[in-house]
Amino acid sequence: MPAPRIAVYVDLDLVGDALTKLPLARALRAARPDAELIWIAGRGPSAFAGPLVPITPGLIDRVIEHSGTGAALRAALGPARLDILIDTQTTLRTALALALLRPRRFVTAALPGPRPRRLIDRLLALAARATGQPAPHAAALLPPGPTYVAQAIGAGGRHKAWPHHRELAAALLASGRTPVLILGPDEADQHATLAASLPGARFPLQDTPPAGPPLTIALAARCTVAVAGDCGGGHMLAAGGPRMVSLFGPTDPGKFAPWARELTILRAQDFGATDMAAIPVAAVLAAIGAQP
Hints:
- The protein is α/β, with parallel strands linked by helices.
- The chain has eleven helices and ten strands.
- Helix 6 links the parallel strand 6 and strand 7.
């Protein structure tokens, strides 16, 4: 049986546009890992076929550029019918033209009605409507009001994990900010200890059934800044769009730093060592702009 075909239509898709929509691609891949995911840039080139190519393997299978909505797009897509077409733009005329492609399921942002204020919430809602899987409920886990700072405390290798996240979270609480600690499966056993010592911190992944990368990305979108080492969690947080403070020691930030709209890199080498512990809490607080 052929893999389902999912297409996403975007309008302009320069680097900033593509990074903004990256959480949508990740949510679709998480929801339908078996699908062929086709990314369509209607009015020009796509950064996913240019400077962002390094992050597309395993995420986006094919990019179509300069497609318009008519015959050229039909020819590029070929005769096989799309199973899902997601239209992220809001012009009704363009949506009607895309509907003529006759996908089995068509979801568009152009329909009238209330929309979430945050673009990432709109995009994840489109993914939920298209795939039938619930959108991550980040707004309920991190309601408006506090200034949130995300912290991904783990890493794929212990040597890449920064050991001072508890101290950072305590300092953030003292400065009036709310730390949001992202604990993956390998760090879940630290939850009770951290929660007891950090009253007021949030542990959203422990407050909800497992939801995968889309929820982490959606949570990051509600944070002002995020702190992470060289880890998958750091890349998920960056995809949500907050300002990033990335911590490196034994690995090379020139190779592994995340894509972020605003990125500060702190290296252990700047503090006289290669071990992650050499990066002081005060330096991270300064990069965040949150000294008590």
